[in-house]
Amino acid sequence: MAQLTRSLTLLCSIVLTLNLSLASAFVAPRSSCQSPRIRKEYGSLSTTEKKAYISAVKCLQSKPSKFPAGMVPGSKSRYDDFAAVHINQTTSIHLDGIFLGWHREFVWLWETALIQECGYTGAQPYWDWPKWAHNLSSSPLFDGSDTSLGGDGYYDGSFDYYVVGVKPDGSLDTVPRGTGGGCVKSGPFKDVMINLGPFEFTLVFTGLPSNWTAYNPHCLLRDLNQFCSERTNQTYVDAALATTTIADFQDALSSATSRLGVHGNGHFALGQSLQDFFASPQDPAFFLHHGQIDRLWYQWQKKDFQARTYGNNALNGTSTIFDPPTAPEVTFDTTMNWGILGGTKSLGDVMSPTACGYCYQYQ
Fold it and tell me: Pfam families, per this entry (predicted)?
């Protein structure tokens, strides 16, 4: 299977290179996807399906890390490996031109690990934000039941708000806190310890410290936050899908001008562990959150598939956070990597869920 995937990726790269060399409009690589994985909204899963997904996540938490001994002391499990790769690449894979493509592959690698390493027979579910935007605590994802991803945290009264930026006048831009803030108090991940971080956002300006790989076990934190959750409702999703340029779509997902965008508000809706800009994959909700982002990207692409997938409205930005003017613009040949999780691919390889070795769709 691994050899087949490598062969398909190589073939896709050759076809894409040929297509991009043509003066005419780009042509999408031929799809080899015959039996796609069907990704479903988490609430639509049966009790058996929810428990199977949770069991597979716990399986990755129990399997040893694949990092060479001593390289990343804080990565104790395969679950941690995903967080470590994300941490190490954070300033290259956010708020730039490879954010969407890099995370598409990241979720695919996670889903594949669940299947190949833990015997999971389903596909990666997603968190459809608008369904639960008005009441996170009663959603099947976060109600604290044994089929949820864990409920709220214990109440921590030591803070009143979260800082999300700085206003033009120099004052702090904040959002209100949620109803928890402490360790997850119910559900299958109640006793989970996460091993890397936490990291301050300001590290995006200074770089990670040399000891970022250190083992630092601490509990999974949750702070269900209705203020932020409301900003992922259908109105905001529709506004993102109504954008007509990739630049505006990216801005609707992650933007200071819209107070975090739907992507950022999803992270802040769950509290400190998912808010951690570097280490957020340590919250099991991360992969459902990014499944939704990938789903919206594909819905947006399909509105003008050729132009938005392989054409002149498909890419925008650089491969450096905040897209500094000195950084080169990304192209379909821009190379990305996922370290020990999955090697390298070009942006051209990750533009469609049904080509270049990918084979999935959303229900």
Answer: Tyrosinase
